[in-house]
Structures are given as structure tokens and as C-alpha cells.
């Protein structure tokens, strides 16, 4: 979930191993995307990076150079209803349908690209919800190594429900936290990442707790959940997080991490590199674990 403000940092980006424009098709739907490949050889793994509400695939631009230097491919997709698919899907798709489309797109991508050991799901906010749906569904998807999600919990913080304009992009505090958490120029540059939220996605927001209860037991890969210190969307009490992890009964491992000095849009803040390194460390653990 994201909203425009006024100052995106370029200090973490690099032209080396950068994400480049790419397109793929899933279930007959053309999706725009950004792809980064390691400089030499086949990728050790492929990271499917899934952006949050109101953003686009460029949200992951600062993550790609770190991942490719460690030998991984990064496929950052504009979710169905965003980017090139917005014209054909003006209402968007619900989260479960988005996951089905992404699974089909991964299969098409695998026809022409080596996935390495498998696919690692990386999602932010509503993209984290889609990642969980993706992990829970379809046995016909490419092999999954693990899932790392930031900014997605189980129950919303009661205060978040008091902002009637949040679904239209109105709650700066919820989406960003203190503005000093982000490098100078972040909010001006981030305007290029923003996109309208498709209506179907917005309409099911309040149903997420029920959805999570249904899909969580079907997630059968290691899961890592990261919450920013200044995360305002979710109830982060010990009871709420325990209830969330307890429902991931089939996941062989569940890790909850907290990132200090960070707001909801973790990958755009001063602590982005720290977060991205932790993501990649978790991926290494998934690669070392039993298949």
C-alpha cells in the first residue's frame, strides 16, 4: 500500500546488473516486468519480486544489484491490473486471481530462462498477500524455495481503519511513517513508481484476515515476515503475530523479523540495504535447506 508524498532515493541504485524492461504472458494476459540477470552463468535461483498497492515493479530497482551479484535472477512483475495489463484489466484482478496469473507467467518465463534451483517469492504489502496466495495455490507452478514478505500482517491496526481515504492513497503516515526515514529526493522520484489501485484489489482489502486464515495452512515453504518499526497498517502485538505464525502450520520454518528505523515502504528507505541483505540471507538458508 503506497501513496504519493513529495520527495525515491537513487543512492542505492546501480546501472550494473540493473533491472531492464521485460514482458511476459500469464494465462493469456500480457504483463510488463523488469528483469535482471547475473553477469555470468545461470542463476542460482530466480526471485519473483511482487510490488505493493499503488506501486509498480520499479519498487525493486535497488534490490536487483545486490541479488544479481550473489548470482540470482530478479523478475519484478507489474501485477495484473498494473502496467501493460491495466488496459486489458481496467478493474484489475482479486489477489487469488493475480497469484494464478503469476504462476502461469512463471511457467512461460521458465520456457526460455533457467530458474536455477527454483523460485523465491518476495512481496511487499499487497504484493506480500499475492506472494502468500501464490505459495498456497497451484501444484503446477515452478518449484518454490521460500517466501519473504514485508508490510503484510494478519489483522489491521484499528487506527488504520479510521482513514477513509487510505484506499485512494490518502494516508501518508500509514504508507510511509516519519518522512525522515527516507533519503532526500525519495518522494519526488517515487512518483514514477505510482499507479492507480485497481478497484477489485481495493474492494477485498477488509477481507484479508479471513483470506489469510484459509490460505495460510496451504503454504508449504519457509516463510519470513518483516515489519518496520514504524509500520502503522498492522496490529503488531505479540498476540497478533503469534496468531499469524500459528496459522502457517505447513511451513517448515517461519521467521518474524523487525527492522528498526524503517517505515512501511522499507525498500525505499535508509534501511533498504539492510533489509535486502536479510532477504538474501534468508534465501541462502532456503537454498541450503531440504528440498
Give a structural overview.
The protein has an eight-stranded mixed β-sheet with strand order 1-2-4-3-5-6-7-8, with helices on both faces. It is α/β, with parallel strands linked by helices and 291 residues long. It has one domain (20-288): Alpha/Beta hydrolase fold, catalytic domain (Rossmann fold). It has helices spanning 64-69, 95-112, 126-136, 172-176, 186-189, 199-203, 208-215, 238-246, 272-288; strands spanning 20-26, 29-36, 46-50, 73-77, 119-124, 144-150, 223-228, 254-259.
How do the strands and helices of this protein lay out in sequence?
Elements: E1 20-26, E2 29-36, E3 46-50, H1 64-69, E4 73-77, H2 95-112, E5 119-124, H3 126-136, E6 144-150, H4 172-176, H5 186-189, H6 199-203, H7 208-215, E7 223-228, H8 238-246, E8 254-259, H9 272-288
Parallel strand pairs: 3-4, 3-5, 5-6, 6-7, 7-8
Antiparallel strand pairs: 1-2, 2-4
Helix pairs in contact: 2-3
Amino acid at each position: 500500500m503506497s501513496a504519493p508524498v513529495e520527495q525515491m532515493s537513487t543512492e542505492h541504485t546501480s546501472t550494473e546488473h540493473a533491472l531492464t524492461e521485460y514482458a511476459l504472458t500469464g494465462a493469456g494476459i500480457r504483463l510488463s516486468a523488469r528483469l535482471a540477470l547475473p553477469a555470468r552463468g545461470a542463476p542460482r535461483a530466480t526471485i519473483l519480486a511482487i510490488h505493493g498497492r499503488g506501486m509498480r515493479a520499479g519498487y525493486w530497482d535497488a534490490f536487483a544489484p545486490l541479488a544479481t551479484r550473489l548470482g540470482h535472477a530478479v523478475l519484478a512483475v507489474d501485477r495484473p491490473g498494473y502496467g501493460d495489463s491495466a488496459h486489458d484489466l481496467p478493474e484489475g484482478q482479486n489477489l487469488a486471481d493475480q497469484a494464478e496469473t503469476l504462476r502461469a507467467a512463471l511457467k512461460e518465463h521458465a520456457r526460455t530462462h533457467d530458474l536455477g534451483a527454483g523460485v523465491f517469492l518476495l512481496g511487499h504489502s499487497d504484493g506480500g498477500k499475492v506472494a502468500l496466495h501464490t505459495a498456497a495455490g497451484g501444484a503446477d507452478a515452478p518449484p518454490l524455495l521460500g517466501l519473504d514478505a514485508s508490510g503484510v500482517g494478519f489483522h489491521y491496526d484499528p487506527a488504520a481503519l479510521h482513514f477513509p481515504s487510505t484506499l485512494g492513497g490518502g494516508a501518508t503516515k500509514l504508507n510511509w511513517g516519519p518522512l525522515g526515514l527516507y533519503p532526500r529526493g525519495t518522494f519526488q522520484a517515487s512518483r514514477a513508481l505510482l499507479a492507480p489501485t485497481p478497484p477489485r484489489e481495493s474492494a477485498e482489502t477488509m477481507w484479508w484476515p479471513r483470506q489469510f486464515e484459509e490460505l495460510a495452512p496451504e503454504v508449504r515453504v519457509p516463510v519470513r515476515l518483516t515489519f518496520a518499526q514504524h509500520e502503522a497498517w498492522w496490529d503488531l502485538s505479540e498476540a497478533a503475530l503469534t496468531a499469524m505464525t500459528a496459522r502457517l502450520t505447513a511451513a517448515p520454518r517461519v521467521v518474524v523479523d523487525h527492522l528498526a528505523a524503517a517505515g512501511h515502504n522499507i525498500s525505499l528507505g535508509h534501511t533498504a540495504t539492510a533489509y535486502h541483505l536479510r532477504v538474501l540471507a534468508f534465501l541462502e538458508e532456503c537454498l541450503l535447506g531440504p528440498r
